[in-house]
Design a protein that fits this description.
The chain is α/β, with parallel strands linked by helices and about 500 residues long. The protein has 16 helices and 23 strands. The protein folds into three domains: about 90 residues, Udp-n-acetylmuramoylalanyl-d-glutamate--2,6- Diaminopimelate Ligase, Chain: A, domain 1; about 230 residues, UDP-N-acetylmuramoyl-L-alanine:D-glutamate ligase, CATH 3.40.1190; about 160 residues, Mur ligase, C-terminal domain (Protein-Tyrosine Phosphatase, Chain A, Alpha-Beta Complex), CATH 3.90.190. It is about 35% helix and about 25% strand. Helix 15 packs across helix 16.
Length: about 500
């Protein structure tokens, strides 16, 4: 695409010189010949400081705030403010709007995004619409994995990835859409066939400040639906019910529709039976129902299955595709993942990503349904993140775990002991007298496994599938799953490694 065509009608001062564009990037290290480099103001670095590096790597033009930096000979596209709000639309144009060539489904909410999006990608693929995935467990289509770290990548990376997936045969993509992504415009320019709202509980208040702003960010997804798009909303959640009420007014007179799920929703799950081997039940919709079986475990996964089934109904996908996908989707890494389930062990161990009070409560209640013995919960809270949830998580653990074991999560630049002290306030408020504190996470996991009697369980919460622990400015190798396996080997013999 030509530069001037990509800039058409955007609030910029376009250069007189036109050039061919191959792509768009906000990262000077990723610039290739023919790319438009967009110099964003980052949290730690400003793109203006890397303009000359981008030029040396072959950038065709640069878009940035204010005057052109000294020494730059490339076409300079000037903006009056940080160009971040323009990145999405620019990327969509340069990459030819690949979102319009595929079924695009966005999943937002505090909890359940990863599992719901995985289920949806399987349903779409079973329905003959090969699906890509974008989310916290990575970005992929078939065997091709794309680089990236965030739940939802920046718009330039996202649209480049959409175009690559489409070129490889993708006909749909399921995207986890975080509140940060919505607030910062990472999905701006994208239009969705369906948006799914799972739930809203306290999280990321360090960024959003409160529930109103957090909810407002999530709601933005539903303003980006395509004509005829579907909003799929959990009416078992109070914010979901508010969202339905607001969108009914906003969708009035349009061809956008709402499909609800949960209690008294358009789609729900009836007769759910939960065991340590999975879930079975019936999906009901419009007076009809069909049976399903799933190896996912836990009551909270009933809600994730409902969300995926409701999105499938809203998109008109066949029942058989839903049944096949539900049966095939194994528990995800770090999402109430059983460790050593294939072995003959006297205790159960689960690794879960739960890092909010509601998610921790859901995980503990699920484990309570699966085991007869006492539950030890190893958990902590991340540093440089919402400090208000620390006492809340401590209170939940004190109320629902037999022995809460408080440890470090990813302390980042904060003092781990200060984070633990805040968690302990919630434990004291719960009335728990059985809790233990081991700041070293490795020690906490090993002590919990050693102390669990036959028939009991250990829930290791907070980090899920992460393979590093962030301490200070370092990312040190650390896997909850591998640490648990090591402790099981130590206390129950070498066969614990399988």
């Amino acid at each position: 695409m030509q530069l001037l065509e990509a800039l058409r009608d955007l609030p910029v001062s376009a250069p007189a010189q036109d050039v061919d564009l191959r792509g768009v990037t906000h990262d000077s290290r990723q610039v290739g010949p023919g790319d438009l480099f967009v110099a964003l103001a980052g949290a730690q670095h400003h793109g203006r400081n890397h303009v000359l590096q981008a030029a040396r790597r072959g950038a065709a033009a640069v878009l940035g705030e204010g005057e052109s930096p000294a020494g730059l000979t490339l076409p300079w596209v000037a903006t009056k403010e940080d160009p971040r709000p323009l990145l999405g639309e620019l990327s969509a144009r340069v990459y030819g709007h690949p979102d319009r060539e595929m079924i695009l489904v966005g999943v937002t909410g505090t909890n359940g995004k990863t599992t719901t999006s995985r289920l949806l990608a399987r349903i779409l693929s079973e329905a003959g619409r090969p699906a890509g995935l974008v989310g916290s467990l990575g970005y992929c289509f078939r065997q091709h994995r794309f680089p990236g770290e965030r739940t939802t990548p920046e718009a330039s990376d996202l649209f480049r990835m959409f175009r690559a997936m489409r070129a490889e045969g993708a006909e749909s993509v399921a995207v986890e859409v975080s509140s940060h992504a919505l607030e910062l415009g990472r999905v701006s320019g994208a239009s969705f066939d369906a948006g799914v709202f799972t739930n809203l509980t306290r999280d990321h208040f360090d960024f959003h400040g409160g529930f109103d702003s957090y909810y407002g960010a999530k709601k933005r997804l539903f303003g980006q639906l395509k004509p005829g798009g579907r909003a799929v909303i959990n009416v078992g959640d109070p914010y979901g019910r508010s969202l339905v009420s607001e969108l009914r007014n906003e969708f009035s007179g349009s061809d956008r529709k709402i499909t609800t799920f949960g209690p008294r929703g358009d789609v729900s799950i009836a007769d759910a039976q939960l065991t340590s081997e999975g879930i079975c039940g019936r999906v009901t919709s419009g007076g009809q129902s069909f049976a399903f079986e799933s190896p996912l475990i836990g009551r909270f996964n009933v809600e994730n299955l409902e969300a995926a089934a409701a999105a499938a109904v809203a998109l008109g996908l066949p029942t058989a595709a839903v049944q096949q996908a539900f049966a095939a989707q194994e528990p995800l890494a770090g999402r109430l993942e059983p460790v050593g389930r294939e072995l003959d062990l006297p205790i159960s161990v689960f690794v879960d990503f739960a890092h909010t009070d509601q998610a921790l409560a859901a995980a503990l209640n699920t484990v309570r349904e699966l085991v007869a013995g006492p539950i030890l919960a190893v958990f902590g809270c991340g540093g440089d993140r919402d400090p208000g949830k620390r006492a809340l998580m401590g209170k939940v653990a004190g109320e629902l775990a037999d022995i809460p074991v408080v440890t470090s999560d990813n302390p980042r630049t904060e003092d781990p002991l200060e984070i633990i002290a805040a968690v302990e306030q919630g434990l004291k408020a719960s009335g728990s007298t059985s809790y233990r504190i081991f700041p070293d996470r490795r020690e906490a996991i090993r002590r919990a496994i050693a102390a669990t009697p036959p028939g009991g369980a250990v829930l290791i919460a907070g980090k899920g599938d992460e393979d590093v622990q962030k301490i200070g400015g370092e990312s040190l190798p650390f896997s909850d799953r591998q640490e648990a396996l090591g402790a099981l080997e130590e206390y129950f013999g070498s066969e614990a490694r399988g």
